[in-house]
């Protein structure tokens, strides 16, 4: 009985290492505004969900083998968690691009824990709230359970495919960021072209003083109109990744 109990504890510890590594960077569950005890409780809660679902993996009794497995499980958890975290970075990047294009980059720039433009901070908070309403915790639990089919316990991930997957994820993140910020980039281009034409036609007019309030108000109105569509596109991409993170099209 003691040997079975020890094997069960080691198996649960391996599950906790993968789950805790993922939860430590998972959006909404790893935010700085949450106390450390809450994040630790979330990791334990996910462990209680995942451990019975995978049926318990056999942990080797030898300490060196267990240490190797512990490192492998931590790397897998961090890789999957950071893959999900990239979607929050996509919102931050899109917000920064939109803020720079519409002269809103310095407005309340220090409102977040990190120095980000207010527009990016609004998009991130709205995206996190929308993700939680769309059952992010359920999708995250499914991802943790499914990860044992893609990365079984005892088989370390191959560095070459993992690095290639990471390059694809970063490229997809920047593509998604630019896609979300396209309306603001188009509006800024049209604004600058119009400002240039007016400046050529009326050199004596201080177009910068006239145009600055216009682009600022236009950026806020554009945010009001485009934010629902932007967040909808972002949420679809996030859910698609959570369903199948190894799909190269995601």
TrEMBL record:
Transmembrane stretches, start-end: 6-26, 38-55, 75-97, 118-140, 170-193, 205-235
GO biological process, one term: protein targeting
GO cellular component: plasma membrane
Topology of the protein relative to the lipid bilayer: Multi-pass membrane protein
Record-linked InterPro entries: T3SS_IM_R (IPR002010)
One Pfam entry name: Bac_export_1
Organism: Pukyongiella litopenaei
PANTHER family: FLAGELLAR BIOSYNTHETIC PROTEIN FLIR, SURFACE PRESENTATION OF ANTIGENS PROTEIN SPAR
Compartments it resides in: Cell membrane
Leader sequence residues: none
Keyword Repressor: no
Family per similarity comment: Belongs to the FliR/MopE/SpaR family.
Annotated protein name in UniProt: Flagellar biosynthetic protein FliR
Assigned keywords, A-Z: Cell membrane, Cell projection, Cilium, Flagellum, Membrane, Transmembrane, Transmembrane helix
